Amino acid sequence: MRIPHPRGDAILAHWAARAGIPVEAFSHAGISIISWNARKQRVLIYRTDSDAVILAPEPLADCLRGWLSERPTGTEARTEELTQAQPSLGLRFLWRDLISYLPETCPLPAPPSEVCRLRGEHTDLLRTLHDVCSEEDCKLGEVEIDHPVVLGYVEQGRLLGAASYIFDPLHPIADIGVLVRPEARLRGIARILVAALCAPEYAEGRVIQYTTQGKNVASQLVAKRIGFRLCLQEEGLEIDSGTPRP
């Protein structure tokens, strides 16, 4: 598997560590099916335009090898068919995340005066943002005051949005989270905050990663307009023990 980024090896090491598998599992071209001992009965699929790694517990891994061998060639078509045919395989689709990375040379606009750094003394201000956003939005946004870098968009004393980094402690990856008040959305605030957060003085030399749900078109547009490039998809499927497999 090849990630179209100068630091693609570090990106693959990050995802291998998250999945709890050796990074060598990502070294093969085409489709690779890897047996793994998951704590939850799940199948994970990591794919690019040309390659895919499928993590599945035994004996399902052998079943998937046989199922895929009967399908036409083409990594994207075969893995897409897998996620669509999950009931017949005893699987249930859970999520699809799109993972984008910022090129190392990408022009960024200067942030407006409304953007400022948030620190510990702004805990209550950030809490006002959490209070008006849904529990799901807060979970997906992942913006907390104790993150290494937190930026806010403040207008007339009100925090309309915030963005932060989550640093991988073992690999040079900086993952972005962003959260905007419901009534302030569609104003470009998320794009302004994310672009400001991508400044070199905040990333500290890390690879900047932006993850969004496959169904969140607005968030995907934020990434695209800033200059992020979609490099990887992660899909999760749950094993339904009550469904017979072929």
Topology:
Blueprint: H1 8-19, E1 31-35, E2 42-47, E3 52-56, H2 60-69, H3 75-84, E4 91-101, E5 115-117, H4 123-132, H5 135-141, E6 150-155, E7 158-167, E8 173-180, H6 189-197, H7 200-203, E9 207-213, H8 217-226, E10 229-239
Helix pairs in contact: 6-8
Give structural notes.
It is elongated, with a radius of gyration of 20 Å. The chain starts with 7 loop residues before the first helix and ends in a 7-residue tail after the last strand. It has two domains: 99 residues, no CATH class; 113 residues, Gcn5-related N-acetyltransferase (GNAT) (Aminopeptidase). The protein contains eight helices and ten strands. The protein has 246 residues and is α+β, with helices and mostly antiparallel strands.
Provide key terms for this protein:
single chain, 246 residues, alpha+beta, Aminopeptidase, 2 domains, ten-stranded mixed β-sheet, 8 helices, 10 strands, elongated
Instruction: State the total count of DSSP E strands.
Output: 10
Number of helical segments? Answer: 8
**Mean pLDDT, nearest integer?**
90
- What is the CATH superfamily classification of the largest domain? Gcn5-related N-acetyltransferase (GNAT)
* Main sheet characteristics: 10 strands, mixed
